[in-house]
Amino acid sequence: MKLAFFNDFRLGVVKGDGIVDITAEVADVPHTGPHNLISNLIGDFARYRGRIEAAVARGTATPLSAVTLRPPLPRPGNIICMAVNYMEDGTKTEAAPINAFNKASTAVIGPNDAMVLPDVGASIFEGEAELALVIGKTATNVKAADAMDYVFGYTCFIDGSARGVPAFYQMKSRETFAPIGPWIVTADEIADPQNLQITLTNNGEVKQNFNTDDMAHKIARCIEWVSSVHTLLPGDILATGTNHRGLHAFQDGDRIELTVEQVGTLAISVRDDLKRSWGRDTRLERAGMKPETAPQRTGKYAKA
Questions:
Q1: What pTM did the predictor assign?
Q2: What average pLDDT is seen over the chain?
Q3: CA 170 to CA 161: how far, in whole Å?
């Protein structure tokens, strides 16, 4: 099942190339807005699933082309991002120590929204293609052997970064720096999340192309470790990291499309009111060069 918000945050289920409105079927879920409608539904999904499936079976789908998709998790309680969690196509000889960071929930945007580059002296702005887990039930000190039972579903996630600013917090939690979507695919539809191809294109050109089998710390271990640090709740996001070798400058006018196999495609645009520009080199293409990332060519903060 693919759950999505659309238009004025109606809740729907994607059916082929259309979406069936199920808002009425979940009206009795306790909530004050779409943010906790979806999280409370996820936490009590077993009770609602049959009702939803029946509504979808009898319902009429509206073409996806005729609606505006919204972020499927408008304000998650936690966005946890795994750090340096890929072996980079075998170029790393050993896994980095397991680590993660928080990203502000107010950074969330959805399909076809714009990532807005702020007026700060970042050396470069990047976006990391990631598979994100959606937590399905309260998770505290979960063992790896049981961890997958706590996954409600999956979505696409782009981890926006303003590199080179003085503090990591400023780098990661900027407004619009957490695009997610286009929907949540329930876990039963993904037989092996540890073998999914992830592709990110910029203006149609492939920049990142890697498989989740290259994770240094596998999904179950990530859940085990994060839930040992703090409790995860239904509707929380756990982003699983990226292969850094395809990272490159995001800049004004870019059209970004992230496709996660069996999950979907999340498309966003990039807006920079300062119209700065960078080289298009990826980190792989600049391997061994200084700096590691393409230098800023023009605009405010460019170095002479």
A1: 0.97
A2: 97
A3: 9
